[in-house]
Every structure is written in structure tokens, then in C-alpha cells.
Amino acid sequence: MKLLIERLCAIVGADGVITSGAALATYESDASQDRGTPTVVVLPRSTAEVAAVVRTAHEQGLPIVPRGAGTGLSGGAVAVEGGVVLTTTRLNRIQRVDLANRIAVVEPGVVNAELTNRVAPHGLYYAPDPSSQPACTIGGNVAENAGGAHCLAHGVTTNHVLALEAVLIPSGQVVRVGGPAPDRPGYDLMGLLVGSEGTLAIVTEITVRLLVRAEGVATVLAAFDGVVPASEAVSAIIGQGIVPVALEMMDGMTTRAVAAGLLEDAGAVLLIECEGLREELDDKEGPLATVQAICRAHGARDLRIAFAAADRNALWKARKSARGALGTLAPNCYVHDGVVPRSKVPALMARIEAVAAEFGVPIATYLHAGDGNVHPNVLFDARRPAEAERAAAAGEAILRACLALGGVLSGEHGIGTEKQAYMSWALTGTDLRTQARVKLAFDPDERLNPHKLFPTPGFCGEVRGASRPPG
Ligand SMILES: Cc1cc2nc3c(=O)[nH]c(=O)nc-3n(C[C@H](O)[C@H](O)[C@H](O)COP(=O)(O)OP(=O)(O)OC[C@H]3O[C@@H](n4cnc5c(N)ncnc54)[C@H](O)[C@@H]3O)c2cc1C
Fold first, then answer.
1. Is residue 359 part of a domain?
2. Chain centroid to CA 39
3. Which end of the chain is more exposed for a tag (fewer CB within 10 A), N or C?
4. pTM exceeding 0.90
């Protein structure tokens, strides 16, 4: 241990190595329920330092866990078996903004919202906007292939990343994948690294696409009696060929938690954002007018519309603060992010209601309704073991329902430690073994972010059926 610390201090400086109990505790968890104490936390400032840390950890036979801001919701940044947690918060420079080509080159520890803030004066923005964007890092977004409220029209992180630099395990060699021009020859390794949850390589530089702000933006807030008419309005909007930039829903319980005087008696609320030329938004037969007409036709009883940024932000505040607000309802919150085909959202919402009754746990749900990505928050008190067990079982029942409805386990939060046991519900043994071969090609000793993403041991596809209580 002494030798390890000395070597790490020699690489990153003593102020970049954390070993003491209290400071280490900060890095024990992310925003999920799982915990694991790192042996040491190290904060490099350059790719060369990352590579040297990788080599040192390998020499010492220790696992490495990459970490951004620790806002992950699936346990991805948790050091399950200890080892070196490599945190990117000092790799936080926006290296280059290329206005002519509308790209930016950033280090992985750049906070998502900072990039948009930097380029906003030029009428540009970085599209993927997880609700955690004031805190989460672009490196963490790449690892989780993060989505966000405004990803319906423009796509999730993978649609906005052009190139990556990454450090390989265990050699510390640096690889570059992708590039500013499309269609690079060879395998699409960039597609592989985006969403690989820190299990294949450590990303040290990211080239992203920037988008031009639309001339006009309008946000509509529509209150409904329940989630079924709201879901039907969502299907009708998309069915009309309209693709709003955002199409979000909160159920009644979430609305009551966040509303603070706004629509507290609603059974469901939709937030719909449309972009375009001002003339389009003003057009009485344009998409904005059609969205409002569809909401009314599906029983919306309160419709508000905002154009000015401050007014739109006021409408968005409720949705963006949803997860935090649920903390006022229960000490613990177990959130999933299964996806179902959009037309199956009403069936899933009905099943979630039934699961809440069956397991005796309150469930507050908000969702990226436009792409069927549903966030049921199972509320519980971890100090009561029986309640924690029921919360886990309820989450598991919801994920089974997602798969039964033709969906997937996770739309954006990743599998991490939280859902690894369920991978064998979704993938066959052959699927899992093929994925394992990819993992071993990148990380032959399985030292990079071990015990994540795949069922253990050995990706063999066994079902760990029993509910594991969160925490
Ligand atoms: C209130 C709240 C709202 C959220 N809303 C959304 C949302 O709308 N959409 C969404 O997608 N997510 C959301 N999340 C989840 C979370 O913010 C995202 O998963 C985010 O991408 C994590 O970024 P991070 O910097 O915190 O990464 P961390 O939590 O630190 O790490 C996440 C994963 O990335 C890996 N990793 C981090 N950096 C690197 C790197 N440089 N190289 C390789 N691997 C790396 C880690 O090993 C880990 O597996 C939300 C979370 C919270 C708490």
C-alpha cells in the first residue's frame, strides 16, 4: 500500500491522491444505492498521468474504476472490490471550440452544462441534456450513453460524439477512435466505447458535435386527469408526424411532489417543447398549434405555453427537479429506466400501478414519454429491511414487465451493478459470451471496472433470480 501511494503521488502529486477514511467516503457511492470503499482515489490532470496510473495499478494487481461526477444511477462508478478509483474531475478543460465546423474538443471531466454555457454566445449548444447536467461530466455521459429530456428529436450522446481518445488497460497505451469526418475505415470502435460503462477503456478526450439554437422555441405544459389520456396524447402527437424536441410526462405523485402550487391536482402532466422558425410556431396550423389541439382533444384541462427563456425555464423547473423532490416523500428512492415501445407506455403505466399495490410500496413515475423511457421511482425506507426487499422486488417486477412488452432494461442510466443480474433475462448465453469476448479483447485481466454490466461470474448467462435489496 505504501509503495502504491508513493508511486501515485509521484505521478499526480500528493494533492491528487486521497487515502484517508473521511475523504474516501465521498467516493464510496454514486447516486444509486450501492456502496464500495476504494483503496485509493486518484485525480490525474492529463492523459499521460492517466496512462501512468493505469500501469501502476496493473503492476500492483489492483482494479481500476473510472469515475466522473458520481451522479450515475446504476452503481457504475462504485469500487465493488476496492482498488483505484480514477476520478476525472481535474481533467476538466474545454480544449477547443471550432465554430466553423461546430465541434468542441473536451476533457472527460467537463461538466455537461458548462459546454453549452461556453458556446451559447455563439448561438450553439450541446444537445444531450441529462437532468443532472449541472453536475454530471461528459466522460460519464459517454460511458453511459446518457440521454435527456431534449434527446427525442436530436438523439442521445452517441449521436453527438465524433471522436474519442482513450487509455487502454493494462498497457496504458493511448488509442484514438472516430474523427471529424464520417465513415472511418475499420470496426466502429467509437460506437463500442460509447455506452460501455467504463469497462473497456478510460476516455480522456471527447470530440462532440454542437448544434445551432433554433430561432423560436415554445414549451407547452398540459395537465390531464391521468397517465392514460396523457399517454394517448403522446402517441397522437407522434402519430401526426410531429417530433417535438422534448416530450416528457410526470404522473400525479411526482407532480404533487414538485409542483409547489402548480397543477397539484393533476393526474399527469406533459411538457412538450417545439422548435422552429418563428413563423412556424405562430402558424395556426403548424406543429405547435396541432400539439395544443391534440392535448385538448385528449382531455387536457389546463394548458400553459411559454416562449421567453425565463418562462420556459419556470415550466421545466418542476420536471428537472423531479428526482430531488421525491426525496421529500421517502428517505430512499430506487429508480429504474426501462424502455418500452411508445404505444406500450399506457400498459406499462398500468402495470406499475398494479406493482405498487402488489408490493405495498409507493411508486412515483416520470418519463421521457416520447421515446418510451420510463422512470418509476420506488420509494422506501432502507432502515426497514422488509421494505427494502419489497422495493427491490417491485423494481424487478417492473423490469420484467418492460421486457414482456418488447422493451429493454435500461434506456440511459446503464446496467452497472444494479441490473447486471437481469442481463440474462434479456440476452442469451451466446449473446453474453460474445460480449464477454469483446470485454476480454480490451481488458484481458478483467481489472477495469470489474463486476459491472454483466452477470458474474463469467458472463455465463445464469439467472440470479432472487431479488437483491438495494443498498
Ligand atoms: C438527479 C439526476 C438526474 C439524472 N438524469 C439523467 C437523465 O436525464 N439522463 C441520463 O442519461 N442520466 C441521468 N442521470 C444519471 C447520470 O447523471 C448519468 O448517467 C451521467 O452520465 C453520469 O455522469 P457522471 O459524470 O456522474 O458519471 P459517474 O457516475 O461518475 O460514472 C458513470 C459511469 O461512467 C464511467 N466513467 C466515468 N468517466 C469515465 C471515463 N472518463 N472513461 C470511461 N468511463 C468513465 C464510470 O466508470 C461509470 O461506469 C441522472 C442522475 C441524477 C442524480
1. yes
2. 26
3. N
4. yes
